[in-house]
Amino acid sequence: MSKTILTVDDSASIRQMVSFTLKEAGYSVTEANDGQDGLDKARAGRFSLIFTDQNMPRMDGLTLIKQLRALPQYAAVPILMLTTESSDAMKAQGRAAGATGWLVKPFDPQKLLEVVRKVIG
Amino acid sequence: MNIDMSRFYQVFFDEASEHLAAMEGLLLDLDVESPDLEMLNAIFRAAHSIKGGAGTFGFTDMAQMTHVLETLLDRLRKQEMSPTTEMIDAFLQAGDVLRAQLAAHQDGIEYDDPRIAAIAARLERLAQLDADASAPASLPSHFNAEAAVWRIEFCPDVIELQSDSDLQTLADALAELGAFARLAPDQPDGCRWRLTTRFDQAAIIETFAFVCDPQQIRILPDEQTPAVALSDSQQVEDDAGFGFFDGAPGSERALAAGSQQQEDDDGFGFFDGAPGSEQALDQEHEGFGLFGGSPGMEQVAAVATQDRADSHQGYGFFSPAPSLSEQADDRAPPAASGTGDSGAPPPTAGVQRTSESVKRPAVTDSSIRVSVEKVDQLINLVGELVITHAMLAESASGLDPVVNERILSGLSNLERNSRDLQQAVMSIRMLPISFVFNRFPRVVRDTAATLGKKVNLRLVGEDTELDKGLIERLADPLNHLVRNSIDHGIELPERRRAAGKSETGEITLRASHRGGSVVVEVSDDGAGLNRDKLLAKAAQQGIPMPEHPSDKEVWQLIFAAGFSTAEKVTDISGRGVGMDVVRRNIDEMNGRVEIDSSPGRGTQITIRLPLTLAILDGLSVRMGEEIFILPLTAIQESIQPRAEQFKTVSGKGQLAEVNGDYLPLVVLHDIFQLGGERIRQEEGILVIVDTNEGRVALLVDELVAQHQVVIKSLETNYRRVEGISGATIMGDGRVAMILDVDALARLSRK
């Protein structure tokens, strides 16, 4: 059984890195290139875990998280923010938006897998 | 698992250069007087994305540069400062450095330049300019040398906070004082927070005083926890991965168990607390964290439970426990793609949704990067296919349409499909011309600044698509033309004012599709070309000119080698190399250049290019036994001549009179010394073509048909032949030469 993970990031290189790492580890991955795209893809599919960048064109990560939490099917799905800022203010905003956790950028593939395995096994 | 990060480098390089280009474009467009917030945000995002990628892929020099860039941009987009021209200059310089660093990394070397430090320092100074003013004035008064831990308890309902956002504002304000954490999820009937800060109690009370009556808040020193993490960076770095919040359910057990399990598990052993404790607890690890009580934590807790059930066998794939699949059914059933490594049977809960998972969205990205060679190979193969079809059609043309109806209709389908295929494949190589246009805002800005001129650049039709190969080759000629326009075309502000024009000159770059070709125009509203000056210069350099040259002939002079009317050679242009190179470059692309100019009103240079170098829209013409191809773009008209239209001028060869104009007559029979019988001139057809030497009349025996032909290089397959630009294979298998009308006009002159 492979779990499907949605990774939302406007940076193609980060997206590919995340996607490649997770696919190598046996997960299915869908990529979205901004918040709006992420929301559309999330609506159309079912994901066990969502990673989202914060700074993106069209719709930022926090807005995406809020919108996802408003959807019944994503009310309790783990959503993690990928963020370059790990300040408490950022974390507080993430928590308020409904994020499950955060992962500081830059991160390496091992760290990413560690987090994913912790969150969805 | 070891992942070779270098496999993502190319994507990062491409992406970073796109971001740099976008950033530069936005910076140049930004109006310093009234900055557009959306633009500032977009610039910030570009810098931010580069920083993220550079950090991830280990290009620390770029990450550092973007970091200082981002710091200042962040203050601008938050409107803490307003942009200045100096900032824009510094940003542009930083962009140049980043580009150089990127190029160096692409070559696998490190870029070293003293400018880097200077620019970083400049940006930092700009970002600090008014930082002193914005620092909180109250800072020293409530400040302790030692950080203390405070427990804050209150009931949001009682203090009448309006909404969750008020609560959040409060939490944010506290977070600014130090390390803030929730001890439990916020409830309407009670919030329990913890703050580790060097500010004293009064500062905390003051923060609350903004939103509610501080009397309702209990602020107690929290003696159970020693003050550890003060700032966020410390929290991440010093506290190698752990953050337990005292007082949270089960945290004591988790703490004890966690430290014990740390050894087994390299730092991740929080899960020995009571089942579900993970759900409520904040977890701080090195580089990431999870919010206790947030949505999604049930899932984390379930994994942790499962993890325990698997008796700490490290990380791996876990066969779904019943509880887990139930939960998954409630929220996020995994897509049943079955590529997992676990070999576990699919969860029964997933079955009822199979129909849904079938129409899963596309898993792949919306674009892929392919090497140009592969695309070229495709184009070549499609070209062969088109030729093969033409041959088949030729062989089948003698078949009886009634008897062979099915073969013939199959052939016509094949024709349609191969044409569609050809177009689709060609479109892969097509790029919007904005790829070249986008560099010009910077070129114009810098050139105009050097010359002390005011110039506005207008880009029109940037979406016009053109073959990638042509786009790359168009960059240099356009660069020359634009610099020339600024240097020689646009006048100095005072001259413009005196001439009753706006001080700011305008240069327009316009691209459009016209017929089968792409037209690129560079026009300015400057002084225009000076006919007398050009003629005088021509006389001085001994360039032969007709007695009463047309404007067009005079304007063409600027393309002559070594021709410059500039009184003073400048850095920008005026050495007389350039325009002839421009013309040669364009000729090599099978394109043509035209100039139009009116004194005082400006100059317009029009470049006409074929859409692609791989196929050509041509007219096949017959000359005796031979078939030649004339590029359609060169043809103006064709006429059936009368005998009196042909004139012979002694010593100058033959002319053809067409609509009152006398055009040089080019007889292909003579130029290529074709054998065979010659027809009388008035029995042939005159094709009037436009060349760099002016209009020319070509005499051919017969017009055959219009074709789209696949261009084969004669040079690579045979050798260069003057008057011929290439060859193609016709439907009957014969090779037909593609005529180079410019060369023919030159040949006929000799």
Report on this structure:
The complex is a heterodimer of chains A (121) and B (750). With 121 residues, chain A is α/β, with parallel strands linked by helices. Chain A has a single domain, classed as Rossmann fold. Chain A is built from 5 helices and 5 strands, in the order E-H-E-H-E-H-E-H-E-H. Chain A has a 5-stranded parallel sheet, sandwiched between helices. In chain A, helix 2 packs parallel to helix 3. The longest helix of chain A has 13 residues. The model of chain A has no long low-confidence stretch (mean pLDDT 85). The two termini of chain B are 72 Å apart. In chain B, the strands form 6 sheets. A 6-stranded mixed sheet of chain B has the order 16-20-21-19-18-17. Chain B is an alpha+beta fold. Chain B is 42% helix and 20% strand. Among the domains of chain B are: 124 residues, Up-down Bundle (Four Helix Bundle (Hemerythrin (Met), subunit A)); 70 residues, Alpha-Beta Plaits, CATH 3.30.70; 172 residues, Heat Shock Protein 90 (2-Layer Sandwich); 134 residues, CheA-289, Domain 4 (OB fold (Dihydrolipoamide Acetyltransferase, E2P), Beta Barrel). In chain B, helix 4 runs antiparallel to helix 5 and helix 12 runs antiparallel to helix 13. Chain B has 27 helices and 24 strands. Chains A and B meet through helix 1, strand 2, helix 4, strand 5 and helix 5 of A and helix 1, helix 2, helix 7, strand 2 and helix 9 of B. Strand 5 of chain A pairs antiparallel with strand 6 of chain B.
